[in-house]
Amino acid sequence: MFKKIVFLDRDGVINVYPGNGEYILKKEELKIFPFVKDALRKLKQAGFLLYIISNQACVSKGLITSEQLLDLTSYMLNLIEDSSPLIDGVYYCVHQEEDSCPFRKPSPGLIREVLKKLGIPETEVNNHLLFFIGDSLRDIKCAQALGIRNILVLSGKENLENKPAWDTQPDYIFSNLEEAVNFILTQKTP
């Protein structure tokens, strides 16, 4: 069955980016962009499944516990969902770069988990309308590894001044999630 899915990074896409090497460790540090609720609602109304795919090495670094990350996630979902669920799943990799975890972006392990759960073979991703919206080249490479259309938003880690040094190019670039969603809603076929 044909699926429409948007994978979303968290920091810099849904909430304000905390800065390079920084993490959101407390609820009061989590600042959701004002357009997020409306943008996600539009995607849901258009029939998209929404999955957050995020590296959160703050857990393995001992800055926050897994339980605290889950509490923070529940708090985030309450802020963006109100009474109607919008997010179909939240997947984190809590490992550090040196752990060589297959779930840590840019490795596509977390997306593979979602695809497996939904019964979509990797060889059939082009038969579905799939997008990954992220704020870093790590997100873009994660999507590219599986042939998923990717969108870089400039509301977080990356900016156009760095473009000459990029070692990969995103399919699309927009200012933020709102612009990316407006574009996705114009796309009809894989």
What key phrases describe this protein's structure?
190 residues, alpha/beta, Rossmann fold, six-stranded parallel β-sheet, 5 helices, globular
How is this structure best summarized?
The chain contains five helices and six strands, in the order βαβαβαβαββα. It is α/β, with parallel strands linked by helices.
What does this structure look like?
By secondary structure, the chain is of the alpha/beta class. It has a single domain (4-184), classed as Rossmann fold (3-Layer(aba) Sandwich), CATH 3.40.50. 27% of the residues lie in helices and 16% in strands. It has helices spanning 36-45, 66-81, 109-118, 137-144, 177-184; strands at residues 4-8, 49-55, 89-93, 129-134, 149-153, 172-174. A six-stranded parallel β-sheet has the order 3-2-1-4-5-6, sandwiched between helices. Helix 1 packs parallel to helix 5 (177-184). The mean pLDDT is 96.
Biggest sheet layout: 6 strands, parallel
CATH secondary-structure class = Alpha Beta
Number of strand elements: 6
Number of helices: 5
SSE topology sketch:
Blueprint: E1 4-8, H1 36-45, E2 49-55, H2 66-81, E3 89-93, H3 109-118, E4 129-134, H4 137-144, E5 149-153, E6 172-174, H5 177-184
Parallel strand pairs: 1-2, 1-4, 2-3, 4-5, 5-6
